[in-house]
Design goal:
six-stranded mixed beta sheet, six-stranded antiparallel beta sheet, 12 strands
């Protein structure tokens, strides 16, 4: 009989304004602006490479259909960081830096709605390097993210293959 290979979710890592595993200041992130979060260190040696990433945001004002918030999960060695975005919580002011980042979930407003509503996206990403830094770009037409701390959250859960 063949062995089964199952997925065992590991311990989730979160990025938010405060109280998460790592910090990314998304409170009131302006449109046409971005932010990089503090790098998460998976540690030396063999580590997980596949992750489930879940992204939750809210807008400060009612968004219109088609507005977009982009999330990039940047896998790096701690020195050579794609896009030169850095590895600590800081502003990303050059839009074109996004062109050199690996794409993860993107939140798209499907229909006009009210503010204070959760918009969510999720996906599976391959992040093989030791360090992981999230980058969020507010590509909306004119809406800031919610001006309340810890409403906007990135959760990354390692997916570990387990042979039965």
């Amino acid at each position: 009989m063949a062995n089964e290979i199952l997925v065992k979710p590991g311990t989730a890592v979160t990025w938010k304004d405060s109280g998460g595993t790592k910090v990314i200041t998304l409170q009131n992130l302006a449109f046409a602006a971005g932010r990089v979060g503090a790098a998460y260190d998976k540690g030396a040696g063999a580590q997980e490479a596949w992750f489930h990433v879940h992204f939750v945001i809210q807008f400060e004002t009612a968004p219109i259909a088609g507005e977009v918030i982009e999330l990039y999960m940047v896998s790096h060695d701690g020195v050579n960081i794609p896009g030169g975005v850095g590895a600590s919580d800081a502003a990303v002011t050059v839009a074109n830096k996004r062109l050199n980042l690996g794409v993860a979930p993107i939140v798209v407003v499907a229909e006009a709605a009210t503010a204070d509503l959760n918009y969510e996206s999720a996906g599976i990403v391959y992040l093989p390097m030791r360090y992981i830094s999230p980058v969020v770009w507010n590509a909306s037409a004119g809406d800031n993210l919610q001006n309340t701390a810890n409403i906007n959250v990135i959760t990354m859960t390692p997916l570990v293959d387990e042979v039965q």
